[in-house]
Write a structure and sequence with these properties.
259 residues; alpha/beta; Rossmann fold; eight-stranded mixed beta sheet; 8 strands; 15% strand
Length: 259
């Protein structure tokens, strides 16, 4: 299972959702990998407590290798394995991001390397579950993630602007599915920062459900604990295992795996 967390809007909780679902998966005994395709490297820092400075020890090194392999030979598997780092949490690894993603984009697009991530992740048979964090824009890396994934989650943070962008997201996913990845399934919309007593979030979610969109039952509440867990580089089930948010992420994990 390769699950991508995708939204073209920033600040909707992609990295938080990715890392916390992966942490729950790993805590349940599943060998789990987080793939960080966001140039900001938030998932990498969240799980490791630091970013990786050497490009060849990140996904940037893997993508650079895909550009040179036809000219100089070599094994692309070595590049993907060099990007994997063990986290302090049992059964959980992260494939690190790097700022060098940015200058590589044009060359990767021109050389049509859009399927290379899928090929690489398919070779990592040691992992039962792979969670992919994406940048807040539709670019080479987010398209690569959608092509590599089997399942897709969309974070939704309960504001009118996010709702408007949701329709564009659904169109993008449908296009990728039709043109590049027929196995891709829209698994559900994750309602994040949900204030159950406020009228606007209730109205927006109700309207999405009435329109037939796959809104997941489990909703993630707002809490300062999220920022605290980021600061401590510990997913919530490790930072505050008895907190309401930890229970919500466990419930969300169980819901999507019951679908």
């Amino acid at each position: 299972m390769r699950r991508v967390v995708f939204n073209q809007k920033g600040g909707v909780g992609k990295s938080t959702i990715t890392c916390n679902l992966a942490a729950v998966s790993a805590a349940q005994g599943r060998r789990t990998l987080v793939v960080d395709l966001d140039i900001q490297g938030n998932s990498t820092h969240y799980l490791l407590g630091h970013k990786i400075t050497e490009p060849d020890a990140t996904l940037a090194g893997f993508f650079k290798q895909t550009l040179s392999i036809n000219l100089f030979g070599g094994n692309s598997d070595s590049g993907i394995n060099a990007a994997i780092h063990a986290t302090p949490f049992e059964n959980l690894d992260v494939m690190a991001s790097h700022p060098e993603f940015e200058p590589l984009q044009t060359r990767l697009d021109q050389r049509m390397k859009i399927y290379k991530l899928r090929e690489a992740l398919e070779s990592l048979t040691q992992y039962e579950r792979i969670y992919i964090d994406t940048p807040p824009v539709l670019n080479f890396y987010s398209r690569s993630a959608l092509i590599a994934a089997t399942n897709c989650l969309i974070p939704f943070d309960c504001d009118a602007f996010t709702r408007e962008s949701l329709y564009n997201l659904l169109a993008v996913i449908s296009e990728i599915k039709a043109d590049h990845n027929p196995a891709l399934q829209l698994e559900g919309i994750v309602v994040n920062q949900y204030q159950s007593r406020a009228s606007l979030p209730q109205q927006l979610v109700s309207e999405l459900v009435s329109e037939g969109h796959p809104v997941l039952s489990t909703k993630i509440s707002p809490s300062v604990k999220v920022r605290e867990s980021h600061s401590e580089s510990k997913p919530l089930i490790h930072y505050a295992p008895d907190h309401k948010l930890s229970a919500e992420f466990r419930a969300l994990h169980d819901e999507i795996h019951a679908l």
